[in-house]
Amino acid sequence: MPNSRYVTLIREAAINSDHIDGIDPTDPTDYEDSWLKYVEDELTTLSGHTDWQTLETNTDWESLAYNKDAQTKIFDLNISGGNDKTPFYTSGNYTNQDGILIGNFYERYSGRLNLDHQISDRLTLGVNFGISKSKVKRLGEDNAFTTPMQLVALAPISPVRDPDGNLYNTPVTSYYNGLIELEEVDRATESLRNFGNAFLDYKIIKNLTFRTELGMDIQNQTMNYWASPLSESGAGINGYGESQWYKSMNYNTNNYFTYKNIFNGVHDFNATLGMSFQEYTEEYVYVAGQDFPSSSLHNLASAGEITDGETTADKYNYLSYFARVNYKYKDRYLFNLSGRIDGSSRFGVDSKYGFFPAVSAGWILSEEDFWNSNSTFSFLKLRGSWGLTGNADGFGNHAHLGLYEGAKYNSQSVLVPNQLANPDLRWEKSNQIDIGIDFGFLNNRLTGELDYYNRKTKDLIYDVPVPGTSGYDIQTVNIGSMSNEGVELVLNSNNISKGSFRWSSSFNLAYNKNKLTKLDGATSMIPGNDGRFMNSLILGESIGVFYGPEYAGVDPENGDALFYKEDRTTTNDMDEAGNFIVGDPNPDFIGGFNNTFAYKGFDLSILLQGVFGNQILNGAGAFMSSGSDWFDNQTIDQLDRWQEPGDVTDIPQLRFYYGNSASASSRHIQNGDYVRLKNITFGYTLPTKTLQKLRIDNARIFVSGVNLLTFTKYTGWDPEVNSDFRDSNINQGSDFYSAPQIKSWTVGVNIGF
C-alpha cells in the first residue's frame, strides 16, 4: 500500500496498543512511554533523510524487485544426414535468459551428436554424445530474507538511497535491502556437463539379438560468492567470500537379450532378459574466508582469514535384473508379464533388494469380426494392469547407517555422532491397479482414454523428529502407508476439417484422492506447524494437510481475533486454541484444454490449464497482513480492519506486538483454484513457392505468449507456487515470498535447409 495508508495503519496499531495498556498517547505525560512514541521514532528512522510526516517518500519496492524488460534469446541449429547404414544427427543451442527478478541471469551453450553405423547385417554400433556449459548469476537463496521478493515487505516511506547516492540499509529499511545484493554481491555458478551413451546391437541368430549400452554423465560445478563490507554477509568483517566445487559422475550400463518372433502369422511373441547397473559418485569442496584488503579482490586467496572449510565424498549404486514377456494374438489380445529385482546401496544388508513384478492385458474389441457391424465405435480397447514398484530416492545415501563427523573437544580432534542409524530401513513399495478403456467415435474424429487407478504405497520413507535428549534431530524411517485413487480422462477431437480450415481440440482432466492409511508406532499424526508452515502427516488424511489453529473471525465488540477451541467455542487467546485440519494443498482436479486452428499457412494454438480443490498457505501473510507487527508494508485487505464496536469484518483490530492473529493459522490459508492461459502461439508457415525462391525446405515464423492470464481468488503473487523454505518431502502449497511463474512473449523463426 502507499505511504499515506501505511503511516495511518502503523500509527493506528500503536494507539490501539496504548489503549490496551491504559495509556493516552495524546497526553504529553504518557507520550514518552507510549507505543505511539516508539512507532513514530521508528518511522523517523525508516524515512531516512526524508520526512514521513509530510509523506515525502513513496517507494514502490515491489516494482524494484522485478526486471520488467527481461529477455530470453534462444538459437538452435540441427543438422541430420548420412545414409541408410550411417545416419547422423547433430545439434547446437545457445540460450541467454534474464530472470524476471533482478540479479538473475542464465546462459548456456550446448551441443549434441548422434551417430549410428551398421557394420554388417548382424552388428550395429552407435554413440550419442552431448556437452553443455552454463552460467547462473542470482541473488539470495530461495525464500531467504535476502531474495528480491523480500523487497515487497519494506516500508514505502523508506527511500532507496541516501543523499550521497548510497543504498539505504537497516535500520532505515526494516529488513535487509536486497538491492544491496545487486550492487555489492557477486554470486556466480558455472557448470560443465558431459554426457554420452554408446551401444552395440548384435544379431546372434534369427529373432535373437543382444544389446549392450554404456552411459556416463559427468558434471563439474563451481560456485564463487563474494560479499562486500556493505552487504549483510560482509558487514563488520571487511567482506566475506565462499568458493565451492562440486563434481558428480553417473555411470550406467544396460545389457539385455531380446527375442522376437511371429508364429503362424497370429502369435506375436517378444521377450527380454537383462541386467542394469548404475554407480553415482560425488565430491564436494567448500572454503570460506573474510577480511579482504580491497573490494576489488574477490578471490579467496586474498582473504585475510580462512574461517571455514569442508570436503565430502559420497557414492551410491543400483543393481537390477529384469525380464519381460509381451504376447499379442491376432493383433487384438495383448498380454505382458514382467519382473525385476532391484538392489540399492541406500538400504541395509538385509533390505538391499526388492522384487517388483507386473502384469497387464488388453483386448481390442474393434478388431473382432463381430465388430464390423458396429457403427458407433470406430475403435475400442479394454485394458488392465497390476504392478509393484519400488522407491529408493528422496533421502540420504547412507540413511541406514550411523554416521560421525569431525569436531574439536578440549583442543583435541574427536569424532561425534551426527546421524542416527536405522538398519531396518527398506524399500518404499507401491502396489497399483489400473483399468482403462481407449475409444474412438465417428471414424476416430473423437478419440479418448478413460483410466481408473488405485495405488497403495507402504513403508513410506520420511525424516521423523526424534526426542532432543537422544542427541539427534531426525531419523529416516519407514513410517506407514498411503493410498492414491483416481480417474483420468483424455478426449481428442477433430472438430472441423473443411477446405483449408482445420480445428482440433484436446481435453484432459484428472482426479486424485490421497490418504495416509497407516502410521507406524503409537502416534496417529506427525504435526508440522512451526509457527510459519503447517504441513503435517495425519492418519486418514491427505499427505501434508494443513494442521493448526482455526480462525473464527473477529469479535465485533472489541476487534479481537478469535480462534476455535477443541469444543468449538471461541477464544481470543491463541494458546487456548485447538488444532484442526484447516486445509489441503493437494488438488482434487487438474485439467487442461488445448485448441489448435489452422488456415492455409496460419496456425493458432491456445492452451488453458486449471487446478481445483486445493488450498495455499500464504506464509507472507503473518508479516504483511498482521496488523503491522514488524513494520512490514501491509496488504490492501488491512484497510477493512475492525475499528469500532459493531464493525463486522474478518480483519482484526491492528495492534502492535500484541499478536492479534499474527502466527500461522487458517486465517492465511486461501483457495488455490486457478485457470491459466498457459500458452498461446500464433504462427505462419511460408508457402512452397516462396521457399523455392529462398532455396530452403521450410520456414515458420511464430509469436508465443506464456502465462498471460490467470483467473484465481488467491491474493498472493501466483497460485502455481510452492516454497522450499523448509526442506521436507511433505511440504507443499506454502508460499513464502516465492517468485511467480514467468509471464513472457517469444518471437521466433524455424528454418529448415
UniProtKB/TrEMBL annotation:
Subcellular location: Cell outer membrane
Domain of life: Bacteria
Membrane topology: Multi-pass membrane protein
Domain named TonB-dependent receptor-like beta-barrel: residues: 103-698
Membrane spanning residue stretches: none
Family statement drawn from the similarity comment of this UniProt entry: Belongs to the TonB-dependent receptor family.
Keyword Membrane: yes
InterPro entries to which the protein is assigned, alphabetical: Beta-barrel_TonB (IPR000531), Beta-barrel_TonB_sf (IPR036942), TonB-dep_OMP_SusC/RagA (IPR023996), TonB-dep_rcpt-like (IPR039426)
Signal peptide limits: none
Entry-linked Pfam families: TonB_dep_Rec_b-barrel
GO cellular component terms listed in the entry, alphabetical order: cell outer membrane
Protein name: SusC/RagA family TonB-linked outer membrane protein
Keywords assigned by UniProt, alphabetized: Cell outer membrane, Membrane, TonB box, Transmembrane, Transmembrane beta strand, Transport
Annotated organism of origin: Sphingobacterium hungaricum
